[in-house]
Amino acid sequence: MTTVVLGLGFEQYLEVVAVRVAVLHAAAGTLVPLFMVCMLTGFFGRNRSFGEGLGVWKFALFAAFAMTIPYVTVAALLGPEFPSLLGGLIGLIIVVFAAQRGFLVPREPWDFGPRSEWEEDWMGNVDPEEELAIDRPNMGLLRAWTPYLLVALILVLTRVPQLPLQEFLSGIAIEWNNIFGTEISEGLQPFYLPGFVFLVVIVSTYFIHRMTRQQIAASWRIAGGQILGAGIALLFALPLVRVFINSGPEFNTTGLESMPITLAEGAAALAGNEWPFFAPWIGALGAFIAGSNTVSNLTFALFQFATAERIGAIPEIVVAVQAVGGAAGNMITVHNVVAASATVGLLGREGALLRKTIIPMTYYCLISGSLAYIWVNGIGLNLGTIAFLLLAAVLVVAVLAIRRSAARAPAPESETTR
């Protein structure tokens, strides 16, 4: 059974939404590298100077465009599976190539202060000297990159409609029709899922990297520990999402609308035409609570779509900004913060990290909500345009204040003792 949305097949509609997601990410994400560098120098630099981060603004913007332009291009040409993978890969190659040749790289290097001056909150239980002492086999650059290149290659080969692999793999399906006597039917294409591609590459990597049995076992143990937490959450979240979505009059005897439709009616009545501005915050909240952008989108995409229909907005824009907000919410997702903290030995310091990551998350939701509103309603004397101009003014004032304070601060040392 093929689902039709606004006259398009579901896969075609998903591609339309994916392009809009990519455009919003590209617009909102252009300043993210500079944001990151300024936060690095402001919170962790010896002089606590955000202005030192501005010294790399040319290279930071170049790095952003090196990723966002391929990202949008790939989304438009190849579909929703590829932008993050190929956009990031292409951007990384461009940036590394440029950095090696000193293109737009500041003349004055920056480094952290001496380790003895670091704050207690920075110090983890991972000893860098012990990590360097671990005996690892020498590996060439091509061999190290081969798994990533294989993932990209296989995804392209299996997703391009002109090639026979797509039809063959998607034709192998496990279907469950009329589940428990209802009108609900579901299907699974196990060999067409992106996860199957990763499994193929994982097995290939064992031979390409000449891994020992102990290394293979260790990789499964580490990956299994990471998957377990997300798997448990999804095990309970996905059935809840399906109940949430399939709660309409087709599946109940009360004649009441489904929960997403009911929520959409309330949102439309509360926010009206201003809803696109608030849509990314719902995505971020969903990701924060559920711990996953995927679960956030599964839970709230229909709600966002129905709300857009009720207020006369463009549904694909509102659904797209929901996904963008969910991606921003990943910055403050608890299990992501815990996993990152555990990786660098900072367990117990998650609160300090959350207080910092909420800053770019807030920026991301504000800018994407403003742009989505303008995309739906146009430029004018409206909430989206005013919010965008205010945010731009705040950023300009912040940059001027940071530069003024940086001019009064002592020059950073080019070399420091670790």
What does this structure look like?
It contains 17 helices and 4 strands. With 418 residues, it is mostly helical. Among the domains are: 1-111, no CATH class; 258-406, no CATH class. The strands form 2 sheets. It has a two-stranded antiparallel sheet. Helix 16 crosses helix 17 (383-408).
Descriptive labels:
418 residues; mainly alpha; two-stranded antiparallel sheet; two-stranded antiparallel ribbon; 17 helices; 4 strands; globular; disordered C terminus
Output the helix-strand order: EEHHHHHHHHEEHHHHHHHHH
Radius of gyration: 24 Å
Structural class: mainly alpha
The helix fraction, in percent, is 55-70%
Number of DSSP helical runs: 17
> What is the global morphology?
globular
Described by strand count, sense and barrel closure, the largest sheet is: 2 strands, antiparallel
Mean pLDDT level = 82
Oligomer kind:
single chain
- What's the number of extended β-strand segments? 4
